[in-house]
# Entry
Amino acid sequence: MPSCRKGELPGSAVTEKRTTLFSYLIALLGGFHAMNWTELNWQELDWQTLLNESLWTNLALLLAVTLASYWLLRGILGIVGRRMRTLAARGRFYGFIAEMLAHTSRLLVFAFSLLIGLKVAELSPRWEDMLSHGWFIALAFQLALWLDTGIRLWMDSLAHNGRVRNPVTTAIIGIIFRVLIWAMMLLSILANLGVNITAMVASLGIGGIAIALAVQTVLGDILASLSIGMDKPFEVGDFVVFGDVAGTIEHIGMKTTRIRSLSGEQIVCANSDMLTRTLHNYKRMDSRRIQFKFGIAYNTQVEKVREVAALVRRIIQGIEGTRFDRAHFLSFDESQLTFEVVYIVLSADYNRYMDIQQEINLGLLQGLREMQVRFAFPMRSIEFVGGVLPQVTVGGPPSGKPAANNGVVQRDGRGQRQ
# Structure
């Protein structure tokens, strides 16, 4: 046995006991090796060796390196973060980097510092392998945390800049990205620890199919919400009509869409129903093409009939916000001469359209009265032939005698005999 001074231990004994001390320390810190503390015989420990001055010196060195590494890493992150905030005026990218660095976990920074401190210790190869796993786990967690923060900042930036028309869909997409990031982080850690993730992913796929079949209606509405957000057939604030529902879109959720009807009540519709039925979106109209008809009496003179179309043209062209298309004498109907008019309202506002139509109607009413042309209405005229008004018995013809028309000819509104 090699000689040693009083109070000192041989080099191999110091290394062995120091490794034992580090093993206990790592286990207490939540570490990487499961120890059977119930079988540990505290009476058999060599307390003189554990209380050896050199071991406590190494422990103090470990603590000093850990604290120094922690403050050094925190200082570097602070300097880089302040520099990024200074450069944020040049572009939002630097601001994103600064915010991401500000969300660095102090616990993970301490874990990095502890790993640096343990690196200076003389550990067995088993502990070296576990330390390498610890480095990967800490780095994976921190990268996932940074990416998660970056996605949240990006989504918030889009929402505040007004570039997001459907915030619900944006939130869903953000959640999907964040779930994918943390899932990839977890799978990477399991793969680094030697777990066979292929079989795990296969089992999760089978379970996912079973869950999807059980909640296919809910998933259908969620996918419909994503489709609405990406395709944008309608947005919040649009006035839509589909089926017997008409109103303004108030909210587009993950499962339902809420519509405020014209009568005031709120109508809740499933997202899948909104996509499977024909929907009219009136908010996106740039203009309205209006077509309407009116009729004048059959006894109107031909010259005045010709003037009616010109009257309609003058009325519409004199109203601001309209474009005249056509006005024609369309057809001979049962009791009127029918005109068809088409014009364009250069606005999507329904109230403006009604104001213009009212002005046109008032102009027609005034113009036709000045021309002494009457609007048509259902009527039946009776013409007496011979110039003598026949005697009419209220009770009908005498009994036993057939009824006669007594020279009375009945004509309809167009003057045709019946």
User: Anything to note?
Assistant: Residues 125-160 form the longest helix (36 residues). Residues 13-164 form one domain.
